[in-house]
């Protein structure tokens, strides 16, 4: 499943994967420990509807269309900076904090793995290991 997932991420917005395909691949991926995530990660997304289409729409319009690179910063204390702009045109710019995010271990689909949770927003971003440079969520 890791090779298939990486092939889809390489294709990016042109990937012809459905939500069902991605969910099936995600379920087959290995869990990832919160400690593995400590550091800076470059973000990405598939051009598919999600549970938060308004957020993806804003992200696509504001960042992807301008080819701005964004990511997350995971700290050793478990805190997460969710949207950090990493573009060469824009210096590392942290988005205004609206909620406190933490990385925890949580069960999804019978697998305990790292997940991002918020103190204010009703979501859990479950994560799985793809390779040493890639996690799926």
What can you tell me about this protein's structure?
The chain is of the alpha+beta class. It has a single domain, classed as GXWXG domain (Lipocalin). It is built from three helices and ten strands, in the order ααββαββββββββ. Strands 2, 3, 4, 5, 6, 7 and 8 form a seven-stranded antiparallel β-sheet that branches. Strands 1-9-10 form a three-stranded antiparallel β-sheet, with helices on one face. The longest helix has 10 residues. About 18% of the residues have low confidence.
What's the mean pLDDT score? 76
**CATH fold label:** Lipocalin
Strand content: 25-35%
Please state the CA-atom Rg, rounded to the nearest Å: 15 Å
Instruction: Report how far apart the termini are.
Output: 14 Å
CATH superfamily: GXWXG domain
User: How many beta-strand elements?
Assistant: 10
Pfam families: DUF4334, GXWXG
InterPro entries: DUF4334, GXWXG_dom
Topology (SSEs and partners):
Elements lengths: L1 H10 L7 H10 L1 E2 L7 E4 L10 H10 L7 E5 L4 E7 L7 E2 L6 E8 L2 E8 L5 E3 L1 E4 L2 E3 L1
Antiparallel strand pairs: 1-9, 2-3, 3-4, 4-5, 4-6, 6-7, 7-8, 9-10
What attributes characterize this protein structure?
single chain, 137 residues, alpha+beta, Lipocalin, seven-stranded antiparallel β-sheet, three-stranded antiparallel β-sheet, 3 helices, 10 strands, 22% helix, 34% strand, globular
Task: Kindly summarize this structure in a few lines.
It contains 3 helices and 10 strands. The protein is of the alpha+beta class.
């Amino acid at each position: 499943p890791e090779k298939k997932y990486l092939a889809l991420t390489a294709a990016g917005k042109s990937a012809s994967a459905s939500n069902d395909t991605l969910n099936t691949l995600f379920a087959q991926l290995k869990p990832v420990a919160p400690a593995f995530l400590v550091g800076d990660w470059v973000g990405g997304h598939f051009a598919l509807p999600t549970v938060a289409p308004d957020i993806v729409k804003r992200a696509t319009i504001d960042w992807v269309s301008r080819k701005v690179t964004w990511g997350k910063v995971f700290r050793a204390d478990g805190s997460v900076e969710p949207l950090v702009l990493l573009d060469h045109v824009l210096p590392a710019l942290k988005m205004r904090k609206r909620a406190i995010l933490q990385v925890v271990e949580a069960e999804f689909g019978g697998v305990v793995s790292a997940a991002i949770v918020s103190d204010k927003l009703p979501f859990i971003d479950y994560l799985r290991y793809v390779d040493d440079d890639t996690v799926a969520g």
